[in-house]
Amino acid sequence: MPSVKVEFSGGLELLFSNQRKHDISLPERVPADGHESGRPVDIAYLILWLRDNLLQERAELFVENDSVRPGILVLVNDTDWELEGEGECVLKERDEIVFISTLHGG
Amino acid sequence: MSCGNPTVETDALMPRKKKYDKTNECVRCKTSLGNIVIRHAVYCKECFFPLVTFKFRRALEPFVNAKPDGPRRTALKPKGNLLVGFSGGLGSTVLLDLVYRCYVSMDKSTMPAEGGKQHPRHERVWKKVSVCYVEVCDIFPGMKDRTPEVAQLVAQHDGLEFIPLRIQDAFDSSWWARAHSSPGRIDLGVDLTNEELFLNSVPSSTSSTPLESLRTFLASLPTATAMSSTINSLIRLLLLHTALDTGSSHLVLGSSLTSLAVSLISGVSQGRGFNVKEEMQEEWFPDRAPEPSSQREKRTGKGERSVRVIRPLRDVGRKECAAWAWWSGLRVLGRETWPWPGLKQDIGTLTKNFIFGLEKDYPSTVSTIVRTCTKVAPKGEASGICVLCARPIQAGIQEWKSRISIRSRSPGDAIDEKTPVGPSLASHLCYACHTTLTSTSSRPAPPFDATVTKSSLVALPVWVPPQFSEKEELFRTQKMGQEKMRNVVQDFLLDE
Questions:
Q1: Nearest C-alpha in A relative to B256
Q2: Taking CB atoms and an 8 Å limit, are B322 and A102 in contact across chains?
Q3: What is the pLDDT of residues B259-285, one digit of tens each?
Q4: Beta strands in B229-363 (DSSP E)
């Protein structure tokens, strides 16, 4: 079970009990229907896991079309998730994932 | 390889395209692994900071000296001080940090390497730097006042003066008196129910507070878009007048590339196409009388007061702003969303959602919007300055508007000769402001507060009445009744 650190910034923490940092444990593999085991846990799964388990209010401000809402920057170990394959980036033990909202404008 | 049928063969789907070009190495130093993708280009963290600082300086410094783009091999010498417009949002937080590092604390890491330590570039540019915040919470009941938080944040920066304003100052004659050392008046009102926008004096018996005047003005606006664009316009004018009050020759705003693209598209869709240039950058001459732009160019004097509005983050996208704030450990207070259902109908909000969605999948589009707008030149000449928003009015716009509009006159429009009709405000407004005040919608704006009622005569912002008293001549338009008209032309009538 990989344990990862998740941090919210730029106002996103307000959706998660106003708590910026969270240590969470995820299953090794994405639970799949039937007998086959699912794919390794990735960020796409983490986003949905956060929505279902930690998010307190207004899911539409965090998730859109099973990914993060446009305007949320995701860093995986201080690197833009676009360099890591976005939602397909497989999570490892002690990874640090930061979600930063940029929706506050000028 | 066959094209396949993607609906039944999932393997036939095209592989997702990478968000960056070539490798994941930094395109600048070509040695480190990248940390961020900026419009398909990869940068490492070490190269990211000089890149943003360079973009910031490039957008600001050519316009610091009075003669823009002039020779400035020696030093930056502005005519006055600097005012930073601060909203608490991401862009203005990054802007404040950059201004502080580059021009107040003189952070060496933000200085260009060439030129040596004694280069004039390393001297302080502005003698005084002020930060102005306009609080809008009084409009909406239940909204939090963030002034103390903003004051605390600004106080963390030594050498910056903090100027807190409230949005109702736009209707406060005492604020005007403080800012301009001349008595302010809010005794001029307008009838928003008539397209001609006839002016009339507000009876002194109706002694409203500035907040009441503001709320009545906003409640009388016809659409949700009108309300939000009016609030933004009031904030801009408050900042401009504060810049004048603080002796600032420059006003910098934290609009990022993304928010600039939003305001450009949203502005064009609200009829501000003629002011596209001003939306990017503008210079405001408060002492100039409204006159055609061709004559104005010839009259530019050396001692004339002016405020140059610059958006130094116009080449920096909001993703870069977010990364700068995160990696610099900046605290972003954030702008509270207005607790008002009308925001969903607002053109600005709809444009923002559209552009933000577009930027996620096509990051270069936002930059393309702004670059395209820099090439757009409005057709026609300016015939003056709008008394409400202080931006140029396109010549002949009211004639054009009346020519293309289809109106039906109801019996209620019958001329009442006994009621005195004041001069019309319409000819002193730009197309967008006139549309904002008069264009109705099938879906009227939901009320922001049930206790505020609409009024047939609403007071105008405090900067409007002085512009009318300064005019030597004021044209008065009044419709004549048939009897009166007959009397005037009686001598020329032929007997039947």
A1: A106
A2: yes
A3: 999 999 999 999 999 999 999 999 999
A4: 248-252, 282-284, 307-310
